[in-house]
TrEMBL record:
Domain of life: Eukaryota
Source species: Phytophthora ramorum (Sudden oak death agent)
InterPro entries with a match to the protein in the record: DNA/RNA_pol_sf (IPR043502)
Name of the protein in question: Reverse transcriptase
Amino acid sequence: MSLPVTSWKRFARELHDGRIEQICILSDVERVTCEAEELNQLISEGADALSAKSKKERFDEQGWDSLKERPFYKVLREYKDVLPDDIPAELPQDKGVQHEIDLVPGTKYCVTRQWPLPREQVKAIDDFFESRRNAGQ
């Protein structure tokens, strides 16, 4: 018995669209298990070495010596006192902190401007925030 051959793109599209309801994979369990164990071993051994190597390479690529040929090198050296001495090899871990500022009802909004606004514009802004406060937002 021979089954029709389908492309991965068509398979994925039909699976996503719901035209394929069930999949049955027939394989040699012992061979698949052995290959999976070998792959797991390669991944666990190689990932640590690879990540350490790639981190070191990335760090070296970001050093001062690698920037010497760049046109902005002189500007960077001029402002090196505000740049970190150690360039991190990766972004810091996300701590999940999000900041929100809640205005207390009746509090005036913060205005930093270089010149005074016309009275009608100030009134329009005040009316806007007052309507938001009254609406419970």
